[in-house]
Amino acid sequence: MSDYTPPLRDIKFVLDHICGLDEIVTYPAFEHVDPELAFGALDEAARFFSEVVAPTNRDGDTIGSVRNSDGTVTAPESFKKAYEQFVAAGWGAVKFPAEYGGHGFPGAVGLAILEMLTTANMAFSLCPMLTSSAILAIDAHGSDEQKALYLEKLISGEWAGTMVLTESEAGSDVGAVRTKAESRDDGTWAITGTKIFITWGEHDMTDNIVHLVLARTPGAPPGTKGISLFIVPKYLPDAAGGLGEANTLNCVSIEHKLGIHGSPTCVMAFEDAVGWMVGEENQGMRYMFTMMNDARIHVGLEGIGLAERSYQQALEFATTRTQGRAVGAPKTEASPIIEHPDVRRMLLTMRAYIEGTRALLYDTAAALDRSHHGPDEDARSKAADRAALLTPVAKAFGTDLGVELTSLGVQIHGGMGYVEETGAAQHFRDARIAPIYEGTNGIQAIDLVLRKLPLRGGAAVREYFAEVTATDGDLRAAGLGGIADALNGAVAQLVEATEYLLACDDPNDALAGATPYCRMFGLVAAGYYLGRQAAVAAGSAGSDVWMADKVATARFYATQLLPQTGGLLPAVRAGADALFDVGLATTSS
């Protein structure tokens, strides 16, 4: 397996020219940060994750996390050593408030650091990622006592956090949760039930694990309106905030999975476990979305992070593997496969999608920064709508691409890609969970079409399209009229699809078009961000090879990948009839 070299120049370029980091750091919440400080942190993060975390990736796959007979789970030894250094360096604290020991950096910078962590080792990264989501939920909805008790240790990474939602009959339909919560005289709650698919639900990397659990109180309304959220720690904190007695919860088993073997996916049993309600009763689903929306951006990042690792390995392989003779090459020599057009197409496809989707994800994080910290109330509201609109696209498009691009990485290796020793297959196997995580991609598409397109009567999505169209002038001024023409054509097709869905009378017709529409949106968004970057890079392309490659990558995307939008439009508009005409429950015989 090849080493990982974080794409620092591209990360910084996106933060500068897509996110507008120089503006974000002027907000009062970030007055202690400037771009130079942020970029210095990125430099150190790149060193740390490439040298300390990336070498553990193979251990995670071959050794994995193991459940012991007493119900404890042991992570690979290399994971534990890397995690100790992760905590000591303070990487989990980057984007959280200084009040509880955080560094108070913008979320967009935190996302860039998380990308490097995820790419270095996805299975490892899931532990601090879920801790991050737990921090957000407690900070946003917890009591002052809960914040004081838990946030500092979660932010430091001394304790880990989890999201405990899923049950055997309550997966995508969270409203079917059966886990019970019964009040005790001392103000705590007794939590009883079994939860499945709990990522890092049990492990030995931290002293304590703080579970955020969805459960139903007596007499609660049915469905999602009757769900409450509880803090249920593995060890009960004592009066001084240290570790007290063990709570009555247990890891029953861990799943044997296609990939991410280093991340234990646990079945957790709670038997009158002591819990504390977060916020108000029956508001748990609303609170959980604070975690899930953050996690959805992170999961989108998993797809692109794994694609980046796969791309770097495939590129290295393609430059050294010789096979056949390229056109014009000496007859006596085999050519590196990178000289063959088909291999170059695969590599450029990987590169273009990664760079365009990275910018989409970072722009979503920057919109969240503006929604929380921008100085103007109206601008904050519009930024929140933008983040809400882009989140399902970023999650679904990024994770679908993670599977497709890591598959291309295997393909570039040829037969050796199918052999585990090369490590190419691990990226593909690890990527497959991401389109399922945090709401399947079909649910993301439904969310986009039914909830996000109608924001402000459709004004939010139309404002975004107007912004994309406005790129035309910059592209033409930079001599990139071909990219402008391709982008304008794709936007027009996406607008047509959008107006069709907004006007649908039959919800089934809108639902039938949701998935191809989400793909269309992602294709156009990535093209938009690549176009913006190309317009900036064109001014330096003559003297800077990296900048010239930026422009060439955008041209490749505009001519080779963006035209797919036209092929998806009929599928969006086709309606639901064709999906129900075939009796799928019958056999073919």
Descriptive account of the structure:
The protein is built from 20 helices and eleven strands. Strand 1 and strand 2 form a beta hairpin. Strands 3, 4, 5, 6, 7, 10 and 11 form a seven-stranded mixed sheet that branches. With 589 residues, the chain is of the alpha+beta class.
Q: How would you summarize this macromolecular structure in one to three sentences?
A:
With 589 residues, this protein is an alpha+beta fold. It is built from 20 helices and 11 strands. The chain has a domain of 129 residues.
Properties at a glance:
589 residues; alpha+beta; seven-stranded mixed beta sheet; two-stranded antiparallel sheet; 11 strands
Apparent shape: globular
Give the C-alpha Rg: 24 Å
How many individual β-strands? Answer: 11
Cα(first) to Cα(last) distance is 46 Å
Helical element count?
20
- Mean pLDDT across all residues, rounded? 95
| Overall helicity | 55-70%
- Beta content comes to 5-15%
Give the helix/strand class. Answer: alpha+beta
Provide the low-confidence segments as ranges: none
Q: Major sheet, described briefly?
A: 7 strands, mixed
